[in-house]
Design a protein that fits this description.
The chain has 313 residues and is an alpha+beta fold. Helix content is 29%, strand content 25%. The protein has an eight-stranded mixed β-sheet, sandwiched between helices. The site of 1,6-di-O-phosphono-alpha-D-fructofuranose has 12 residues, from loops.
């Protein structure tokens, strides 16, 4: 996928494209993009762990807490958000207007916390709905993710398009976000794969499927940050997964905070998602903490995966 590489063509700024978006959504996305810059700037100073636990019983990193508070405040300060739910919060925070059509956001403020001290890519993930949560992925009105990598990028799926913006760090437009990739599409021809957890714990159908990918010469890309690995699939085609394990058939990743937003974005980008049997977007989560086996990427390869797992049903 050819980026708008030279400065001259990097001329469309985030605020120019937000005008095309519905007003509430534009405000929410602007808050996400701006706050991601604060989070990025704080990374060198927030590398420790707190003594606090999140609702999943996982130790909270300083950056988890800082990012959670910064994004939640920025979203609620828009005055457009009725609810903010977060992987780091026991219960959603309430905003001004908790009407049935008020915007609600479910977020993973820092994806890949175990990579904070290793200077590997980190992410932030946002699912945007209307009304109280939890809700199906099919009811999403938009989704976004931030990548804290060699560059700071922000990717938005809205109005039937996936656009990626990169932060300008030099020159007259320093600090602004500029459109780098417009209307992104996941290549159908798979190049990379990344499966989480432990191979020996995967269900047999997954182990066989991954072996077939390796036979076909796909390259392994797995670094322990979902969003970092997912960007590889978005750009190059292939499959990312946190699969069903023998002891944990519902995998690890959370539907509302992680898999539904990225599945929504992937389906707009011409790809597909699955829990092994059907689209993640059709799962009706009973709780914000619900997890599911997760497979996402190029449409043909998700079809093959379902055929493999389904045939083992
Ligand atoms: P942390 O946020 O606790 O580091 O978990 C990261 C994550 O949710 C996702 O980003 C990774 O793909 C996956 O978990 C890594 O899990 P494994 O270490 O079990 O492969």
């Amino acid at each position: 996928m050819a980026p708008k590489s030279d400065q001259k063509s990097l001329s469309v700024f985030l605020e120019d494209t937000l005008a095309d978006l519905e007003h509430d959504l534009a405000k929410v996305y602007e808050a996400i993009a701006k706050t991601s810059q604060q989070v990025s700037r704080q990374m060198p100073f927030r590398v420790g762990m707190t003594k606090k636990l999140n609702p999943f019983g996982e130790k909270q990193a300083e950056l988890d807490v800082f990012s959670n508070d910064a994004f939640a405040k920025a979203l609620l300060d828009t005055g457009r958000v009725g609810w903010v739910a977060s992987e780091e919060l026991q219960n959603p925070l309430g905003g001004f207007s908790q009407t049935a059509d008020a915007i609600s956001v479910a977020m993973d403020p820092i994806d890949g916390s175990s990579n904070i001290t290793t200077n590997n890519p980190l992410g932030s993930i946002f699912g945007i709905w209307r009304g109280a949560l939890p809700k199906k992925g099919r009811d999403l009105i938009a989704a976004a993710f931030v990548t804290y990598g060699p560059t700071l990028t922000s990717t938005l799926a809205a109005s039937g398009k996936v656009n990626q913006y990169v932060e300008v760090r030099d020159g007259e437009n320093s600090g602004r976000f500029v459109l780098a990739y417009e209307n992104m599409k996941i290549p159908e021809k798979p190049e990379v794969y990344g499966f989480g957890g432990t191979r020996s714990d995967w269900i047999p159908a997954v182990e066989e499927f991954v072996a077939s990918l390796e036979m076909r010469g796909l390259r392994l890309r797995y670094g322990g940050t979902f969003i970092g690995d997912y960007n590889q699939v978005l750009q190059r085609g292939g499959i990312f997964s946190y699969p069903a394990h023998k002891k944990t058939p519902d995998g690890k990743l959370r539907i509302c905070y992680e898999t539904a937003p990225i599945s929504y974005l992937s389906e707009i980008a011409g790809g597909n998602s699955s829990n092994g049997y059907g689209s993640i977007l059709d799962i009706n989560p009973k709780a914000l903490t619900q997890t599911s086996a997760f497979y996402v990427g190029s449409s043909p390869i998700i079809g093959e995966l379902e055929a493999k797992i389904g045939s083992k049903r």
